[in-house]
Design goal:
55 residues, 75% helix
Length: 55
Amino acid sequence: MREGMIPAVLGTAVTASGAALAGKYPVAAAAVIGFGLAHVVLGAIDLVEHRSKTV
């Protein structure tokens, strides 16, 4: 499995969970969404940095 895939997928799931909380707990939802998006960004950075060079 490629490095960075797990944080990106986990961040997507956490972001979706935060979006589901948005109606009832808006402050908590904003924190959870931010935490999830941070994981998505960090996972994407890892994926871009460690992509295999096929030339």
